[in-house]
Each structure stands twice: as C-alpha cells, then as structure tokens.
C-alpha cells in the first residue's frame, strides 16, 4: 500500500528588503546633530549623578533583643509558648478529641483534626513565646515526615518532658546531666518498645487505620481493602472525590500524570480519551523536531494496520502537525504524549516503560537515532488509555521476567536512598511496574468537610504503612504508659544521680498522652493511668471511645510501633534542646512610620 504524508513545513517570509534613499546631510545639520548628542550625554550624566546621590541611603542592620535567663524569665516565656501550642493541638487527641477552626485568608475557614496542620498555623505575638512554639513544632513536623501520624502525641509528650524538666532545673539541677539522662533513658525505652511490638496481621490493618482516622471504621476498611488489592508494599494514593461518598478503585497497569499532546488524537469524543488495544509503543529520550525521522516507523504502522503510541521528551509543532493531519485523514492510528518526569527521573520512567512493553529507548548515548529506527525498537502494550491529564499503559505480560528483575534493582536503590521523597518515588515505580495503584477518592458535602476528611484519611493511610513497616503495639497512650514502668530498671544502670533525675523526668512525662486522651473523653486522667498500671496484662487499657477498660488489642485499639517510636525520639530531642537553652535572641521589630496627610502613600483622597 502506498503511503503519503502531508508535510507541514513552515512558510518562509519574503526576503526582499527595501533600502530607503537618504539625502546627504549639510555641514550645519551635522554640527546641529553633534550638539544635540553632546547635550543629551551631559544631561544624562547629570541625571545619573542625581540618581546616584538619591540612592545613597544609609543601611542599618536590624537590631537584636537579648533575653537572659538570670531570673528564669526567658525559660518561662519559652515554656509559655510551648504550652499555648500544645494546649491548642492537644484538643484533637483521642477518639473524643475536638476539631480546631483555622481562619483562611482566602476562601472558607479550615476545620481540622490534624496536629501538625494546626501547629503550622500558630504564630504568637510575643517573639520569645513564638520561638518556644516553633521549637516544639519541630517534634510534630519530624514525626509527620517519618511516620505520617502521631504529631499531636509528639507535641504533648514534648510538653510533658519540658514541664517536668523545667521544674528540676529551676530547683538547681544541672541541665547537661539531666539531658544526658533523658537521652540514655529514651534510647533504652526504644529498645523495650521493639520487644513489645508484634507484626501486624491483615485483619488488623483496618483497626490501625480506623484508630488513626478517629474511629472511622469505613475509612479503615477501605484502606485495608486497598492494601489487599495492591499488596502491602503497593501504592495507595488519595484524591478529592466529586461526590459525597468515599470510593476506591484500582488502576491496572502503569499510570502517570501526562495526557495526550493534542486533542486531535482522541478516539472517543464523548469521554475525550484515546483508547487503543494491541498498541505499539515508541520511546524517544529527546525532542522530535522533524516528521521525516518518523517515516520508517509510520510506514510500517500503516502497512501493519496497528496503532502507535509515541512517548518523547517533546514533539515540535511541524512534526506534531504531520501526525495530526495523518490521524485525521484516517490513514494512521496514532497518539503522542510527553515523557513523565524531568531530567534523570524522566529517563528512568522511559526505561521502566521500555521494560514493561519490551521496547528499546531511542537515545543518542547508545548510538541509536530515530531516522534509522524501525519496527524492531517498538514495544507492545495490551491496552493504552490516554486522557488530557493522565495516561495508562497495560503490559501484555510477555516481559514479566524482566519486570521482576527491574523491581529487584529498584528495591536495592530504596535501601541506599537517604531522602524520604526519593524512597517514595522509587516505591511508586515498583507499584507501577508490578501492576496497579489503588486510588481512594475522599468525598464530602462541602469543601471545608472535604479538607478535614482528607487529612484524617491521609493520617490513617500513613499509620497503616507505618504498621506494615515496624509492627504494632497497644494504642490509646497505654504503650507509653507501660514504658514508664521500665524506667526504674533503666535508672539502676545509670551512674550519675542527676542522670537518674533525667530518667524520672521521662517516666513522669510518659503518662501525659494517656491523661490528655482521658481528659478529652471527660474522665480523670490520673485515675485512668493508675487503674491501667494496676494490671499486669500489657494488653489491658482504657478504651476512650467506649469508656471501658478492656483488652485493647482485641478491641482494635492499636498504634503502629513506628509512630510511637518517632513520638518518643523526637519529643525527647526537642526537650533536650529546650532544657539546654539559657538565652534567647530575637529581632527588634521597628514600628511602621505613620502616613502623613498629603503624602504619596495617602490614598484617602483628602490630601492637599
């Protein structure tokens, strides 16, 4: 079959340039022109001199204000900031915790139950108090980065360690030795925590998620179902839904956030999608500038009557126009999109797609050029679906061995990766290659409710992932309380008396989260903690949701071990930093100058 292509070459503009006839200047006119130029230069010099003089403004460095702790006032103000932040965040803790309403400069106010989101919004007027709030905010932020949940517990635990530590330091204890005792005790308690932990069963994943989502078992069951469908190491993502109900769907194959380059490739006008089955895939790790380079590939596609998907760094207008024209004529089944990612990550994605489809990536580094390529470099996909925002490629299963090998290579990269973001992206690549991504769509009646629900579901998802990583322990603050009973044995191993005082600080602070959970449920926290410790059963505790004392593990009140560990470590770190502080330096805010009537800044309309 003879094949012809319509070439969309750019039209060249006429090149004839007209030259204007110029009349020679007289001597007088030349002198006049020189005088005018000289005058302009001198005027310009004077203007520049005036401008330089006007710019010679004296620059003063911002003054600093120093607060010393000679009378304990600096630490008290820092602690006041800690308490204000912790008291605000603390109202969200537990199954009967309340929400916090945050003012929004744009749009409706936000109603949240997420500790770190609340903490990020706090800015105190007193500069010293604000520094105290920022210090303890670090515990929440770090816990959120590593575990994705437990941010409120981190803040409350840090508040307890600081409160107990300030008391003994004010009484004359050495803060250096105190903090050393806190550090040693925390390290030993983390080891004890790992002994208390157990591996999470599939049936317990829903309970972990439900507890983190504020006892929302619908969310818990949905997250557990998502993990069962894509595997424990699979990727589960969140989206804002269009309806009031939550929903779950699994995207089979490899999906990425890149849609078709041109809507003229669409095959289903109603859904505005491109859908092809048994499609060939061409991968190009550079920009396609000339349609002639594609002639071999496209002629083979027409002869073989098969569709072709082109994935390249970009396609310039002339080459794209050629593809579109031949697609509209019906002579060619084709679609094109830009490669996902940028730089090195783009090349990695192309390599992943190549392994999934059996294609060869065309790149200059390996000596393979597009104009010399033929159908041998094409991969094969069982199905492709392209929208304006995303693309999905489903492999035909013929490259399973290569995919398994590639997944193993990426797992090795995860082990040596240092950044959490890098680990997330590598895990995503594994999920895309392995065959699916679960997507939970969070629904709500209003935008305000949607934001709050999405934060809860995000916490629940992160808690479930953390449980898979390091196991689970009894929840409800009871594990931290049980750890306090291990402190006396740790104290016996400490040689210094003041280090033992540091251990006692940790022991007393470990009861703070449980007491606050009980307080938010309307009961006396001290009474609850005493009753829990009176039992030798490590699974026994207080269920704040029902008000009952029972086997919490059987009741589904479970916390991920990783979350509890991060709370303990980060709260301890912040408390040590706080107790070692003895002076605060803040910027002196200069008062804004008043705007006088009639000045250029006066927009009232009454300046004369």
Automatic annotation (TrEMBL):
<dbReference type="GO" id="GO:0042026">
    <property type="term" value="P:protein refolding"/>
</dbReference>
<keyword id="KW-0067">ATP-binding</keyword>
<dbReference type="InterPro" id="IPR027410">
    <property type="entry name" value="TCP-1-like_intermed_sf"/>
</dbReference>
<keyword id="KW-0143">Chaperone</keyword>
<dbReference type="Pfam" id="PF00118">
    <property type="entry name" value="Cpn60_TCP1"/>
</dbReference>
<keyword id="KW-0547">Nucleotide-binding</keyword>
<dbReference type="InterPro" id="IPR027413">
    <property type="entry name" value="GROEL-like_equatorial_sf"/>
</dbReference>
<comment type="similarity">
    <text>Belongs to the chaperonin (HSP60) family.</text>
</comment>
<dbReference type="InterPro" id="IPR027409">
    <property type="entry name" value="GroEL-like_apical_dom_sf"/>
</dbReference>
<protein>
    <recommendedName>
        <fullName>RuBisCO large subunit-binding protein subunit beta, chloroplastic</fullName>
    </recommendedName>
</protein>
<keyword id="KW-0175">Coiled coil</keyword>
<dbReference type="InterPro" id="IPR001844">
    <property type="entry name" value="Cpn60/GroEL"/>
</dbReference>
<dbReference type="GO" id="GO:0005524">
    <property type="term" value="F:ATP binding"/>
</dbReference>
<dbReference type="InterPro" id="IPR018370">
    <property type="entry name" value="Chaperonin_Cpn60_CS"/>
</dbReference>
<feature type="coiled-coil region">
    <location>
        <begin position="400"/>
        <end position="427"/>
    </location>
</feature>
<dbReference type="InterPro" id="IPR002423">
    <property type="entry name" value="Cpn60/GroEL/TCP-1"/>
</dbReference>
<dbReference type="GO" id="GO:0140662">
    <property type="term" value="F:ATP-dependent protein folding chaperone"/>
</dbReference>
């Amino acid at each position: 079959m003879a094949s012809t292509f319509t070439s969309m070459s750019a039209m060249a503009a006429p090149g004839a340039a007209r030259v204007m006839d110029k009349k020679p200047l007289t001597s007088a006119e030349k002198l006049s022109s020189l005088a005018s130029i000289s005058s302009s230069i001198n005027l310009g010099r004077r203007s520049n001199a005036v401008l330089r003089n006007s710019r010679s403004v004296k620059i003063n460095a911002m003054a600093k204000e120093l607060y010393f702790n000679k009378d304990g006032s600096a630490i008290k103000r820092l602690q006041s900031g800690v308490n204000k932040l912790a008291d605000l965040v603390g109202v969200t803790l537990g199954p009967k915790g309340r929400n916090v309403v945050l003012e929004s400069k744009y749009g409706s106010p936000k109603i949240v139950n997420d500790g770190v989101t609340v903490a990020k919004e706090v800015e105190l007027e007193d500069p010293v108090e604000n520094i105290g709030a920022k210090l303890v905010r670090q515990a929440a932020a770090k816990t959120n980065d590593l575990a994705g949940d437990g941010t409120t517990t981190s803040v409350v635990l840090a508040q307890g360690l600081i409160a107990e530590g300030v008391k003994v330091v004010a009484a004359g204890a050495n803060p250096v030795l105190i903090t050393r005792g806190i550090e040693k005790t925390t390290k030993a308690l983390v080891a004890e925590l790992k002994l208390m932990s157990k591996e999470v069963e599939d049936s317990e994943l829903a309970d972990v998620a439900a507890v983190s989502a504020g006892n929302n078992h619908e969310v818990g069951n949905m997250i557990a179902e998502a993990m069962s469908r894509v595997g424990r190491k699979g990727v589960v993502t969140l989206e804002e839904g269009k309806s009031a109900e939550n929903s779950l769907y699994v995207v089979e194959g490899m999906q990425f956030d890149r849609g078709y380059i041109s809507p003229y490739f669409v095959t289903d006008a109603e859904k505005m999608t491109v859908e092809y089955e048994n499609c060939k895939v061409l991968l190009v790790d550079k920009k396609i500038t000339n349609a002639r380079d594609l002639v071999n590939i496209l002629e083979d596609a027409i002869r073989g009557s098969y569709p072709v998907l082109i994935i390249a760094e970009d396609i310039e207008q002339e080459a794209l126009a050629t593809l579109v024209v031949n697609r509209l004529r019906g002579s060619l089944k084709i679609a094109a999109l830009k490669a996902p990612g940028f730089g090195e990550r783009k090349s990695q994605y192309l390599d992943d797609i190549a392994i999934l489809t059996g294609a060869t990536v065309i790149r200059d580094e390996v000596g393979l050029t597009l104009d010399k390529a033929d159908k041998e470099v094409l991969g094969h996909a069982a199905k492709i679906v392209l929208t304006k925002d995303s693309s999905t490629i489903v492999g035909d299963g013929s490259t399973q061995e290569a995919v398994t090998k590639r997944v193993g290579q990426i797992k090795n990269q995860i082990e040596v990766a240092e950044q959490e973001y890098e680990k997330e992206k590598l895990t995503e690549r594994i999920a895309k290659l392995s065959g699916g991504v679960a997507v939970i769509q969070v629904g709500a009646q209003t935008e305000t409710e949607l934001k709050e629900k999405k934060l809860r579901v995000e916490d629940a998802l992160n808690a479930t992932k953390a449980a898979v990583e390091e196991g689970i322990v009894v929840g409800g603050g009871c594990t931290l309380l049980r750890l306090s009973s291990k402190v006396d044995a740790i104290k016996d191993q400490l040689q210094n008396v003041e280090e033992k005082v540091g251990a006692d600080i940790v022991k007393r602070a470990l009861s703070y989260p449980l007491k606050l959970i009980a307080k938010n449920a309307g009961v006396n926290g001290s009474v609850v903690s005493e009753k829990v410790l009176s039992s030798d059963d490590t699974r026994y505790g207080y269920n704040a949701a029902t008000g009952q004392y029972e086997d919490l593990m059987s009741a589904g009140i479970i916390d991920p071990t990783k979350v509890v560990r991060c709370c303990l470590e980060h709260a301890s770190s912040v408390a040590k930093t706080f107790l070692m502080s003895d002076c605060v330096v803040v910027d002196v805010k200069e008062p804004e100058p008043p705007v006088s009537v009639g000045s250029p800044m006066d927009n009232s309309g009454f300046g004369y």
